[in-house]
Amino acid sequence: MATIPATQSFLAGEKVTASKLIAAAKTPIDFLMNPPRVNAYASAVTPLTTSVSTLIPFDTEPWDTDSMHSTTTNPSRITINTSGQYLVTFYGRFLSNSTGYRQLNLRLNSGGSSGGGTTVSTVNSAAVNGSSTFVTRTMELACVAGDHYELFAWQNSGSTLNLESGQRVTAMEFRWLGIS
């Protein structure tokens, strides 16, 4: 868990020491230069049965500065360790098929169940004929330490359809912006 540096102040006439200056300037700047953030993505395709909501596991993380994701324990989860306002982006690319709709559903504390917890955001897109359908959303969220987020994908093409894989293809990203 990252510790948000406390604000430091100086009293009139107080002698400025190195430790006080580090606490007042360097520590907060270091925190802001490398805030809590994570990127987790699926490196393998995920088959999606038509009209069934599927939990997306993320098996690769290019960065995770606050231990928010594990590739072995609950790989579908991003768990908040430092409360605050976060910039959240999630996205997925569905294999080409011209029938139906594609959907991504971000859920809070769902415990791996597509009906569990609370829906935070749902994004729908009509299928794209002759091309993959890319579904994405970026938003700010007030997040609380201990909460976890999971992403579910859904499609209704009439047959099994793959959710494609890769770092900029199917992923979730969380970046701490400030205190909520």
Give a description of the structure.
With 180 residues, the chain is mainly β. Helices cover 9% and strands 42% of the residues. It contains 1 helix and 12 strands, in the order H-E-E-E-E-E-E-E-E-E-E-E-E. It has a 5-stranded antiparallel β-sheet, with no helix packed on it. It starts with 17 loop residues before the first helix and ends with a strand.
Structural class: mainly beta
Q: Give average pLDDT, whole number.
A: 94
Count helical runs: 1
Distance between the termini: 17 Å
Strand-residue fraction? 35-45%
Low-confidence stretches: none
- Rg calculated over all Cα atoms: 20 Å
From the spread of the alpha carbons, the general shape counts as: elongated
* Strand order, largest beta sheet: 4-1-12-6-9
Helix content: under 10%
Topology as a string of helices (H) and strands (E): HEEEEEEEEEEEE
Number of strands: 12
Largest sheet: 5 strands, antiparallel
